[in-house]
C-alpha cells in the first residue's frame, strides 16, 4: 500500500465516523505534519476523497470535509435496496446451518455493543452483518459495490445510532432478516431487508433539523 493510499484510508474512516465533521477544514501542511510525510501524498489522498464526494477543494479557500448531501440519500437508498434485495434473496435460498450461526454471532455482538452504547463497534458489526449476507449468497462483489454507493448514508447513520433505542431497533431488524433467511422464506427476507434499509430516510430528515450545519 502506498503512503497516499494509507492516508486516504485513515481520512476516509475519520470522515465516515464523523471524527472529522462536515465543514471541517483540512490543511495539507497540518496533515503532512500529523502523518509525518511530505505534502504530495496528502494532496493525492485529498484528491481521491474529493472524487468520492467526501471532501471539497476550493482553490482560493482551502479544502473542507464535505457536508452530507441530503438530496443524494434517497437515490443511494434505492440503489442499495436493489443490490441487497439480490443478496438476501439468494441467501434465503442457499443458507446452511453454519451461515445462520455466523449471523447469530454477529447479532449477539451487536446486542452486547448496544448494551454498552458503543456506537463504533456496533456500526462495525452492522457492516459485518450485511457483508455476511453477500458472502452467504455467493456475491461478495455486490457488497464491495454497495460500500461505494452508501458513503453518504453511512455518515448520516453515524448520527442516528446514538439516538436512544436506535441500536436496539437495528438489532431487531437484523434478527427479522436472519429469521427469514433461516426459514428459507425468500419473500419475508426481502421484505425485512427493504424495511430495514428504508428506515434511514425519516431519520435523516429529522437529523437535519438537529444538525443543520452537517447537511447540504
TrEMBL record:
CDD domains: WHTH_GntR (cd07377). GO terms for molecular function: DNA binding; DNA-binding transcription factor activity. Residues 1-68 form the HTH gntR-type domain. This is HTH-type transcriptional regulator in unstable DNA locus. SUPFAM superfamilies: GntR ligand-binding domain-like, Winged helix' DNA-binding domain. InterPro entries: GntR_C, TF_FadR/GntR_C, Tscrpt_reg_HTH_GntR, WH-like_DNA-bd_sf, WH_DNA-bd_sf. Gene3D superfamilies: GntR ligand-binding domain-like, Winged helix-like DNA-binding domain superfamily/Winged helix DNA-binding domain. Keywords: DNA-binding, Plasmid, Transcription, Transcription regulation. It holds the Pfam family FCD. It comes from the Bacteria. The keyword Cell inner membrane does not apply. PROSITE patterns: HTH_GNTR.
